[in-house]
Structures are given as structure tokens and as C-alpha cells.
Amino acid sequence: MDADSTLDEAYERLHRTGPEFEGWLSNHGPMAVEALVRHGQARHVHRWLDRYMDRLDELPRGLSPVTADDWRAALGDPRRLADWLAFFAREVRERPWRTVLESWWPRLLPGIAAGATHGVIRTGHAVHALLDHEDEPRLAELGQALGYWAARWQRVPLTTPSGTAEPAAALAGVVRVPDQSGGISHRLGQLSGLPGWPTALAALRPAADARQARDLLAEVTTAAALHYLPAAHGSPVMLVHAATAPMAVLRTLPALPRTEWVASLHAAWAASAAVTAAYAPAAAAPPDSLPTAPGSAEEVFELAARHGDEHVIKLADTCLEVHARTGRPEALAAVVRAAGLVEELTV
């Protein structure tokens, strides 16, 4: 069986399950299998799914259909999850998927924090697969991703970048939320009244046009991936999303009108900074305590695949792209650190 067929079969298996389980945890299956296939690990996909799917829930039941007239009232209402899934299933069946994405991206983008940023991350993986080729399982996956995003839609307070800082310096200047307890919704809820939050967002240098926005977004993704290495002990799992969320947006840009690229940069930067504010440690780990990356990028991804944790796999997917673009070995070392820290959490 070729890799494309493996991915499509995996999507079909996963589409019998809901986007969440145990009340609110995100179903990472579609994101992880897309990353495994893309990086040459398709042979592991069904075995990985056999283990992962034991924890998943069935598809939720709907309340009432979402319509073109009342969608605003349903936006961000997790009780309407099944209704949103059905709505976008129809959308991607009846209209070209790029048209659906173009219509809904500016509506969903302000709520980029949806599902701890998993709405946009799952969408990015789905678009990544569709840009390879279109078929029914991949169209269905985009519908599921957009439906999940719409149901969990959650704002992050935005401030337009207007400073002079490069992404690494801007990320280093992000202030931490004062109460570092509770879940992500509680932590992100503190941003609106957080002194220094608007200033930290504004510190990033602006993009003058779509091309600059794309390039700057790539640098934001790089900064977040490299920041993970010394900061991961703040939250080995949650800090992954500071890098994977902007990567998802970056991968979606080729399917979007260039007029959406600057706004996409702003939202992705705010999401990355918000996750950093919510989970970064008070102090970075000493450099001499950090791992180095053994071997090649391919060996590092194989390590992630053997490890099996969905967050390690997703981070590896992002970090390998950062490494390919920049040559920075810290990007690969971040995967090694994630694997070690997540292993400690499960022992």
C-alpha cells in the first residue's frame, strides 16, 4: 500500500470518531498520521492508530443545523460541535475546498486559540494533505478540522506589530500570565488585563506586504521551535503549540489569497505569544543541561515515530521543516528534549 492510500485509510478510520475525547481533549490522530506519512513513516500509521483510537470517543450528536443565517450565534459554542461538523461536511462536498477555506478563514482566524490552537493546527495539516492531491477522505478531513475550529472558536487579544524586534527577541519579551495554574482557557483569559501584553505583541517588526508576512511567519515559527529547547520544562506538551500553530498557518498560506497573509501573520504571532505567556517557565534551563541532536533529521523523526506520543510527532514535523530551512541543530535537539520530558510525564 502506498503512502497516500495509507493516509486516506487512516482518515476514514478517524472520521468515525469525534474531534474531542474525555470532554475536551483534542483528537490528535489526523494531525499525527499526516505527519507520519509525510516523513516516510507510513508503515507505522495503522499500528499507531490501533493504540491511539482506544481512547477516542464516538462522533457527537447534533442539536440543530448551522445555517448561513445563524452561524454567528453558533460560533464558539462547543455544544454545537456536531452541528458544525455537519455544516462543513456539506460545504466541502458542495463547493470547491479552496472557496470554502477562502470564505471561512477570515471568520475563523480571530478565534485562533480554539481548542488550545488545535483547530487551526488540524486545519493546517488538512490543507497540507490537500495541496498534495484532492480526494474524498482529505476533503472530509478539512471539513472536520474547520468544524472543530468553529465550535471551539476562542479569541486571543490582538495588537498589530509595529516595532523593530526580530521574532526571537519579540518572543523573549513576552510576559508570563500571573496565575500559572489551571487549563489553557483560564491562562489565556488573563491576557486581556495583563500589563505589557499589548506592548509585547506590538514589539514585533511589521510586514509591509504578503511576501514579507510569509517570510516573517516562517521566522516566528523558527523562533518558537528554538525557544522550546530551553523552555520546554515549563510545559513539555503545551509549549509544543507555540511552534505548531504558526507552522499550521504558514502551511495554509499557499491555499489562501495573498490579501489574507498579513492578517494570518498577526493571528499566528499572537497565538504563539499567548501559548508562551501561558506556559513558559520563570527561567530557562541551563545550556549545559540541554540535549543535542544525534544523527540526521530523518533519524530524529524516526525517534519521534518510535516514541509514539502525538505531541512529539507534531513537534518533530515542525522542527524538521525549521531545520531544513535554517540548518539550526537546536531545532532537532528540541525534539529530543520533548521526547525525554514527555516520557517522564508518563512514567
TrEMBL record:
Keywords: Oxidoreductase. GO terms for molecular function: oxidoreductase activity. It comes from Streptomyces roseochromogenus subsp. oscitans DS 12.976. The lineage of its organism: Bacteria, Bacillati, Actinomycetota, Actinomycetes, Kitasatosporales. InterPro entries: Questin_oxidase-like. This is DUF4243 domain-containing protein. It comes from the Bacteria. It holds the Pfam family Questin_oxidase.
